[in-house]
Amino acid sequence: MSCDPERVTGLVDAELDPQAAAAVAAHLETCLACRTQAEGERTLRARLRGLSAPELPAGFEARVREAKRARPSALPTAARWALPLAAALLVGVWLRGFAPLVAWDLARDHDKCFSRQPLPAKVLSGEPATVADWFREQGTELPALPAQVGALRLVGARYCPLVSLASAPHVYYASAQGRVSVFVVPQGVRFEDPLSSRARSDHVLLMRLEGRVVGIVGEQEADVQALAAALRPVLTAWASR
User: Fold this and answer.
1) pLDDT tens by residue, 28-52
2) Beta strands in the chain (DSSP E)
3) pTM for this entry
4) pLDDT the model gives residue 121
5) Chain CA centroid to CA 190, Å
6) What pLDDT digit, counting tens, does each position of 88-97 carry?
7) How far apart, in Å, are the Cα atoms of 36 and each of 19, 33, 112, 196, 227?
8) What is the pLDDT of residue 78?
9) Which of 121, 127, 128, 228 has its CA 20 to 30 A from that of 47?
10) Which residues pair with 58 in a beta bridge?
11) Is the pLDDT of residue 123 over 90?
């Protein structure tokens, strides 16, 4: 089989049937990129499982107990789900800003979009102003990003849903040798700026630019760094207007 990041994730999550799992496992023995992706995803999942449960808001348990005294007939059912639900919501909020998970989420969406033919862009254009105007019509203000950085050319954009349930502006660049995604992350992320990492089989760079968290994903680290260098002055000039 050829490289298939989605099936590698399926193997890690034990979601493949035995025949498909065996095929992917055999592929990992000869493919360093996919083996690195699998190891990275297993490490991330181990870290997530090892996270301590967040503390509940101050006074939450007392309020639940008070509600039980006030509504004794309704509380037995409510008490069984109220505390676990609150804890789950708090964990979800905390994980939305967990940098390794955000990096994996962006890489997953990058791979998913570029694996489709045709590219699932909502605006297909190499004109920066056209892409910026499309986002403005949807209610998102973005500057006109570079039309070309080295061999990489702007090809289009759309909003992409992330695992965190947020929807992020996603701009596509491509060349004959590589593909790069630029995301504007719609929530806060906890990381030391900038953060360079590997997720799946991709290079991911998270950086803060004029109050925004920008994620850049690509197969080649040089492409990611080149696009990051090109974006800094564009966003700086745009924010100072």
Assistant:
1) 888 887 888 888 778 777 766 665 5
2) 148-149, 152-161, 167-174, 179-185, 195-199, 202-209, 212-218
3) 0.64
4) 94
5) 13
6) 444 444 455 7
7) 22, 5, 18, 16, 24
8) 53
9) 228
10) none
11) yes
The tokens for 39 are 């190891």
Q: Which of 187, 186, 184, 196 is nearest to 224 (CA)?
A: 196
The Cα–Cα gap between 114 and 116 comes to 5
* Confidence at residue 114, expressed as pLDDT on a 0 to 100 scale: 93
Q: From residue 175, give the alpha-carbon distance in Å to each of 126, 130, 151, 170, 184.
A: 12, 20, 6, 17, 21
Q: Which of 229, 67, 49 is nearest to 150 (CA)?
A: 229
CA–CA distances in Å: residue 27 to residues 10, 20, 116, 119, 199: 14, 11, 22, 26, 18
Beta pairing class for 212-218 and 179-185: antiparallel
What angle do helix axes 32-49 and 18-28 make, rounded to 10 degrees?
110
Number of Cβ within a 10 Å radius of residue 102: 31
CB 202 within 8 A of CB 111: yes
- Structural Rg of the chain based on CA atoms: 21
pLDDT at 70: 64
Whether the Cβ atoms of residue 230 and residue 152 lie closer than 8 Å to each other: no
Q: For residue 48, what are the contacts with CB-CB under 8 A and spacing of at least 6?
A: 95, 98, 101
Half-sphere exposure of 102 (CA within 13 A, CB side): 28
